[in-house]
């Protein structure tokens, strides 16, 4: 019945979205193959080129790319739903797709000339950490000199274009800087073999660095200065909105495993005319209710925000309210999904520790690492609360 409950939710939120339906069908069709690739990636600390090319051929890195440029043109909510479906299979694959598909969003912050130069066709994969860890000194001739070391380059080994957040400043006043994002050719950066972690191993989120690279100013972007109108680029949080779908998918996969295993036991008990454990029945009901409520919160806030953003007449206050709401619910998606997976494992008891029963351990370790991302930490709610109580934006996104 769990599958039916989730499908009914999908029918409510995504009825008539044929592009999303096509993507979900593709993911389900290749689920077994992706599951194998996910296990391999966990061992080798990165996705294989075969996995990446399969995803590229399926259009997964073009989910956010506008249809006029050959992409799927999904809304933020539909992007999150596609990532949820991937994450039911493997968290690292979903994470790399989430980062790689940002290429379709970043294009909205570039001039047509640079867009055609950096992203000449669909299927371009992006990677990089946009937090301003690097420095960019304006040379006054239309270029800047960039140096820096960044972490969390998820999927960088298979990426085509690399991004890096920088503190952009004039040579005369390096302390008076603004946040920009530099676009590198892959040959400009050195990738470090640093991704030795206890979760999300397959994402290959390596460190990377660049030393004194000359970057044209036109190949730097500011998320507060979109060049293309529309809800994907206004306001500036488009790259993080869809992230909430990944922890949801990890939790859905875990709960599905537990429902299947517990269901076998309950069926056997009922066949023997014995009554199932009341705590087990209660826990299954509670976890399902919490998952359904969380999915509703994620997709309703994303759809509401999209509708607000696409209306030119909406006020800045209305946009800010939608941005804060989606950020707060996104944080809860990470934290609550982790809690759900822990409870699901507890329900199976000792059997949960065996890989033959499922991949609950891998899912929990993935979520433990995911929640260390800025959007999933408890401190994000400090920023949300500040905005709700009338404070100014105190973070790069919220």
Describe it for me?
Residues 245-375 form the Acyl-CoA dehydrogenase C-terminal domain. The chain has 14 helices and seven strands. It is of the alpha+beta class and 398 residues long. It has three domains: 1-109, Acyl-CoA dehydrogenase/oxidase, N-terminal domain (Butyryl-Coa Dehydrogenase, subunit A, domain 1, Orthogonal Bundle), CATH 1.10.540; 126-221, Butyryl-CoA Dehydrogenase, subunit A, domain 2, CATH 2.40.110.10; 244-389, Up-down Bundle (Butyryl-CoA Dehydrogenase, subunit A, domain 3). Strands 5-6-2-1-3-4-7 form a seven-stranded mixed β-sheet. α1 packs parallel to α11 (278-309). It starts with a helix and ends in a 10-residue tail after the last helix.
Write the layout of secondary structure elements.
Blueprint lengths: L1 H13 L3 H12 L1 H14 L4 H9 L18 H14 L1 H10 L2 H4 L5 H7 L7 E13 L4 E11 L7 E10 L7 E8 L4 E2 L14 E11 L3 E2 L16 H4 L3 H27 L6 H32 L6 H33 L11 H11 L8 H10 L10
Parallel strand pairs: 1-3
Antiparallel strand pairs: 1-2, 2-6, 3-4, 4-7, 5-6
End-to-end distance? 38 Å
| SS field, number of helical segments | 14
What's the main sheet like?
7 strands, mixed
CATH superfamily of the largest domain: Butyryl-CoA Dehydrogenase, subunit A, domain 3
Secondary-structure element order, N to C: HHHHHHHHEEEEEEEHHHHHH
The neighbouring-strand order within the major sheet is 5-6-2-1-3-4-7
Indicate the percent of residues in helices. Answer: 40-55%
The CATH topology annotation of the largest domain reads as: Butyryl-CoA Dehydrogenase, subunit A, domain 3
Keywords: Oxidoreductase
Domain Acyl-CoA dehydrogenase C-terminal: 245-375
InterPro entries: Acyl-CoA_DH_C (IPR013107), Acyl-CoA_Oxase/DH_mid-dom_sf (IPR046373), AcylCo_DH-like_C (IPR036250), AcylCoA_DH/ox_N_sf (IPR037069), AcylCoA_DH/oxidase_NM_dom_sf (IPR009100)
GO molecular function: flavin adenine dinucleotide binding; oxidoreductase activity, acting on the CH-CH group of donors
